[in-house]
Specification:
- The protein is of the alpha/beta class.
- Helices cover about 35% and strands about 15% of the residues.
- Helix 5 (about 65-70) packs antiparallel against helix 6 (about 75-85) and helix 11 (about 155-165) runs parallel beside helix 21 (about 455-470).
- About 45% of the residues are buried.
Length: about 475
């Protein structure tokens, strides 16, 4: 380790965001970058712990201490070589991962100043692209073919891993461009789509084939895939949003969050949206129901569309800002997260349940009735219980975005794509090796686990690629 005492003398320094008045006028990435000298200083803070909890907490097992030391010593190419061993797409995780590694960093547990692992990671991969360390691989083909259904994080990971093992991989995507959640779910101000395009183009040069606008089960039968390919991997994600079936749900102006975010991303891709289907927050009072990252993305998008006001409500209590004794390490810390979107302008409220949507005579949304709730912790240690207080109020709103997570019809999703015959539709299941009960069909990512993190989807993709490789090699 180059500087064993750096963590004592160098404080954590984040790159920070572009000024609010600037970033609100575009959809470019909000996060800035540190210069090379400052970035190496931040890498030097890694104290090479005896037990690197950062590595333990990372779903893909990144070897953070190793590449932090190489980065500090200016050995960028070697740092990249270590990073690529565990992470297929550091340019994605380095931008959108919530950094489970940093939450487990010893400097976070002891001083609340973890190493800037996520930012250091993206600095390494950007250097790899910039300096030409990353070149198209030319794998020796083994004559076997694999179909991947879905081009989100897990699907791309499976495709990348199997392609480099010599398989001829074809990725089927129902949307206009590949990328899945990365393309049509995450806003450009968090992940610019030129970053996605760059990786897709590299994968094409390496031999991966992409068939877009192809819905398996409609445009092409799943049975055709299982016959034409030696193995099929289902990586369709978990796209069924949790609904809010209360009075007024059918009013004009109530939308699912992903419907809104996906449309804005399509507009930025140059895809024309019919006028009647456009959802714009310009000049409107916006209410976001749900306090997670997707809700935050709606806040940022509405602000860029020049909404009159933006309010975000959450049914759960407001968590503490820095440390939550109820969720000590190694649990995920349930603390207050203030995103770049929140900084741009948003009223945030907690302990509010939604009772009904109110509208006018023309069927347009005008208000939302909410009710204050209280949460109590049972003495037996079971889950907290919610109690309605009867205290209601109306919040003026012209647009509502439902951002309450996704339901998890795991097998239903897979069955939907695997409509091969009546019998198989009744008993499709997935084992611990990601293999379904349909002969040569595997599944991975959110389609199996339910909605989760990009990095967890990638971890699932790597596991599934190994399982498919073993299956096709007779192990």
């Amino acid at each position: 380790m180059g500087n064993p005492k750096a963590f004592l003398t160098i404080p954590r320094q984040e790159a920070g965001y572009r000024p609010v008045h600037e970033r609100l006028n575009d959809f470019s990435e909000v996060e800035q970058i540190l210069n090379t000298s400052e970035r190496r200083k931040q890498a030097s803070r890694c104290m090479d712990c005896g037990v690197p909890f950062c590595h333990w907490a990372c779903p893909i097992g990144n070897k953070q201490p190793e590449w932090q030391d190489l980065l500090y010593n200016g050995r960028w190419k070697e740092a990249y070589r270590i990073l690529e061993q565990t992470c297929d797409f550091p340019e994605f995780t380095g931008r959108v991962c919530p950094a489970l590694c940093e939450k487990s960093c010893v400097l976070n547990l002891s001083a609340h100043e973890p190493v800037t692992i996520r930012e250091n990671e993206v600095a390494i991969i950007e250097a790899a692209f910039r300096e030409g360390y990353l070149k198209p691989a030319r794998p020796l083909r083994n004559g076997l073919k694999v179909a991947v259904v879905g081009s989100g994080p897990s699907g791309l990971t499976v495709a990348n891993q199997l392609n480099r093992r010599g398989y001829e991989v074809t990725v089927f995507e129902k949307d206009e461009f590949p990328g899945g959640l990365l393309r049509f779910g995450i806003p450009n101000f968090k992940l610019n789509k030129c970053i996605v395009n760059r990786r897709i183009e590299l994968m094409k040069k390496e031999g991966v084939k992409f068939r877009t606008n192809t819905y398996v089960g409609k445009d092409i039968k799943a049975k055709t895939l299982t016959g034409d390919f030696d193995a099929v991997c289902i990586a369709i994600g978990s796209e069924v949003p949790r609904d809010l079936p209360i009075p007024g749900r059918d009013l004009k102006g109530v939308h699912f969050a992903m419907e809104y975010l996906g449309q804005q991303n399509r507009i930025l891709e140059g895809i024309k949206i019919p006028e009647k289907d456009l959802v714009s927050a310009k000049g409107k009072k916006v209410l976001v129901i749900g306090g997670g990252d997707t809700g935050s993305d709606c806040v940022g998008t509405a602000n860029r569309q020049k909404a009159k006001s933006v309010t975000q409500i959450e049914i759960l209590p407001q968590p503490p800002a820095d440390f939550n004794p109820a969720t000590p390490w190694p649990a995920w810390p349930q603390i207050l997260k203030t995103s770049s979107s929140h900084e741009e302008g948003c009223t945030r409220r907690w302990n509010l349940a939604t009772n009904l949507f109110g509208g006018d005579s023309k069927g347009n949304l005008k208000s939302v009735e909410v009710e204050v709730v209280e949460w109590t912790q049972p003495n037996d240690g079971s889950r907290p219980e919610m109690k309605r207080t009867g205290k209601t109020e109306k919040i003026d709103a012209d647009l509502v975005f439902l951002s309450m997570g996704f339901v998890n019809p795991v097998q239903d999703n897979i069955i939907k794509e695997l409509s091969i015959d009546t019998d198989s539709r009744k008993n499709v299941s997935v084992d611990n090796n990601q293999r379904t009960s349909c002969d040569n069909v595997f599944a991975c990512g959110d389609a199996v686990s339910g909605a989760s993190l990009v990095v967890r989807a990638m971890a699932s993709g790597r596991k599934t690629a190994v399982a498919i490789d073993r299956f096709l090699n007779g192990f």
